[in-house]
Structures are given as structure tokens and as C-alpha cells.
């Protein structure tokens, strides 16, 4: 079937909850994808950083097929032989004590919320049903009804109430606002160390570490949502490393499954993860052997292919080139490693049309929040591919 027929089908039979660029991807390999007509494109979105390893990484495909032939699902009614090794690996990588696996990012965030609340009641001594979690304006933590309850984005919330109480929203980057929002019922701070969906927003240098220190002093747990920023994307294994602290827990997802299979996890102290008793939380597919085998391999590849250092070196150089772009449309370029936002001026008339032009030229980017073009290729990208991307971005922004 041709691209336009396929697009028509998904429009006719699908819900309209997305507005994709008008391209159908039917094959992918490394950083490149192609459409049914055979046209090739460089993927500079990486499925919102889930494809750090690129498309169809051969070693991940090998693990996928091998494990799929052995055993795919046990449920947590029984043990499986992949879960333990995976939990050990991810826990050690994070320098934490324990981990709880789920499937999607939003589920792992929900897990963090439940863990924080129960920790508050059983360990901190917060009065039942009074726990508060602090979050930031313009956050993105997923799409469940509880998570959109503390979104500040109208489009994520409108029409979906009533909402879950127990959250306080502060401006991202405002340390004083954070401190004033804390009280004896505050159990945790849930925050993205760089806000990806909000447009690659980097907080002021002192904000995260300052908030972490305040948490330490006041028995509040700092949970970093590194679903998008973690696992090498920003040129460190975890984005928090840029800011010089180790949070009390990480939420990970996306690239953890190597872009092949969904798996997410809450990783944290025994104190926090220890709050769950049998029967209190779970997921049928969470921790299944297929997901665990793939995640183990995905973590191994981050190391063996040196993807974290590559992200830093290639990303920094690429950003420097973008800074040098002399475009009347560009207000700012910001990012870390290979998570980069090109912020357009109001007068440019929105990022969407630029993404459409780039698509025609063979580069796939996606606008985020009207005015930002997010550039986030797979971490396996090489210099020639980045040169190609730069050339096309330059062409579009200088026309
Ligand atoms: C993508 C994302 C999520 C949600 O993950 P899903 O797998 O889509 O549920 C949560 N937090 C951040 C920071 C994300 O980027």
C-alpha cells in the first residue's frame, strides 16, 4: 500500500489523539528510516529518545528473537530467569538499592507516586491522605488521569477531570518557590532534570542541587524522571550527573527497551522501594523475561558502544555548529549532549512548517510546544550523518 492510503486508513479508523507529520515509516536501520515508496530519511527524533540505540540494532534483534523462542511471559506469579539479572544490573548502574519494573513510562511514574505516598505514611509519619508531592510547571510525566492531574498544560487536562489531589506545582527553576511549597506533608519532589516535552528547557544551575539539598535536610525524597534524559541522551548516563548530585530515585523508560520493547522502572533506595508488600502493586507484563533480556542487552550496548561519551562529544560539536547558524528565525539553541532544542522566534510562525520542510529534505524532526524544533538523533549517529542533518537544517533555517 502507498503512504497516502496508509495515512488515510489510520485517519479513518484511528482516534485523533496525535497529529503526525505526513510520512509513513515502514523500515528502519540505524539512524535511517524509509517509507513504502523507498525514500530514505535521517531520524532526528528517535521516538522521543526511545531509540538511543537506533532502529533494529542487530544485537538487540538477536536477543529479542533468542529470548522470544525461549520464554516471553511468566507474570509475576512465578519467577523468571531474566528478571533478577536485570534488576541487579539496573540497580548497580544507578547506584541504588532496588528496582521495580513496569512497562511504560507513565506506569513507572505512577509507581513512584504510590511509593512516595506510602513512604510518607509509613516512614515519615505523614497523616493518612495528606501526602503532597511537588512538581514543576510545564512538566511532562505521562498521560494517566493522575499524572495529567498535575500537568499545567491545558491540552493534557481539559475535559479529563475530576483530578487526583495531592500535588503542588511550582515554576520550573524557582528554588525559593520550591522551598516555600514544602511543608510537613511533603513526601517528594518529582522533576525532569531537563524538561524535554516543554521544549528542552534547562534549569538554572543551582536549582536541582539546591532542591536536592533541601530535600536531604527536610526528609523529602527527590525523584528524577529521567525517562527521556537518562541512559546517555544528554552525554551523561543520567542527566542529574551534570548537576552534581544523586537523587533518591530515578524513573527510567524509553531507551531502556532499546527501542524494541517497552520496559520502564523505578529505581531507588531500599527505604522507598521497601514500602510495597505483596499484592499492593504490580503489572501482568512488568518484569517479563523478554523485556528484561532486551533491557540487559540495551544497557550492555550503551557501554560497549560508548554511547554516552559519543552523545557528549558529537552533541557538543553539533550544538556549536547550530550556535553558529546565522538565521533570522532562530532565537536560541539549547541542550545537552544529543538532546537539543532550536528555539524559533515568534515571527518565524511556528516550528511545524520547518519540520515539514526538513521532512521533504530527508530529515525527521518534530516540533515541540509551537516554537521549538527538537533535534535528538539516535546516540549511534556518526559525524557524516550529523553533517547531513546540519546541512538540511541550515538550508531550511536560512531560506
Ligand atoms: C515519555 C515520557 C514519559 C511517559 O512515558 P510513556 O512511555 O509515554 O508513558 C514520562 N516522563 C518523561 C520525562 C517522558 O519523556
* Name of the CATH first level of the largest domain: Alpha Beta
Strands of the largest sheet, in order across it?
A: 4-10-9-8-7-5-6
Beta-strand share of residues: 15-25%
What's the N-to-C terminus distance? 34 Å
- Give the % helix: 25-40%
Taken from the alpha-carbon principal axes, the silhouette is globular
Order of helices and strands: HEEEHHHEHEHHEHEHEEEHHHEEHEEEH
Q: How many runs of DSSP E, i.e. beta strands? A: 15
The secondary structure category is: alpha/beta
Q: Describe the biggest sheet?
A: 7 strands, mixed
Query: Which distinct ligands sit in these coordinates?
Result: pyridoxal-5'-phosphate
| Number of helices in the DSSP assignment | 14
Q: Which fold name fills CATH's third level, the topology of the largest domain?
A: Aspartate Aminotransferase, domain 2
Corresponding CATH superfamily of the largest domain: Type I PLP-dependent aspartate aminotransferase-like (Major domain)
**Secondary-structure arrangement, i.e. CATH architecture of the largest domain:** 3-Layer(aba) Sandwich
Radius of gyration: 21 Å
> Which residue ranges are poorly predicted, with pLDDT under 50 across at least 5 consecutive positions?
none
Mean of pLDDT: 97
Q: How is this fold's topology laid out?
A:
Blueprint: H1 3-13, E1 27-29, E2 32-34, E3 40-43, H2 46-49, H3 58-70, H4 83-93, E4 98-102, H5 105-124, E5 132-136, H6 145-149, H7 154-157, E6 167-170, H8 175-181, E7 186-191, H9 205-218, E8 221-225, E9 249-252, E10 264-268, H10 270-273, H11 289-304, H12 307-323, E11 330-336, E12 339-344, H13 352-360, E13 363-364, E14 366-368, E15 372-375, H14 383-398
Parallel strand pairs: 3-13, 5-6, 5-7, 7-8, 8-9
Antiparallel strand pairs: 1-2, 2-3, 4-10, 9-10, 11-12, 12-15, 14-15
Helix pairs in contact: 3-11, 4-11, 12-14
The structure holds pyridoxal-5'-phosphate (PLP).
Pyridoxal-5'-phosphate binds at residues 48, 104-106, 109, 140-142, 192, 196, 225, 227-228, 253-254.
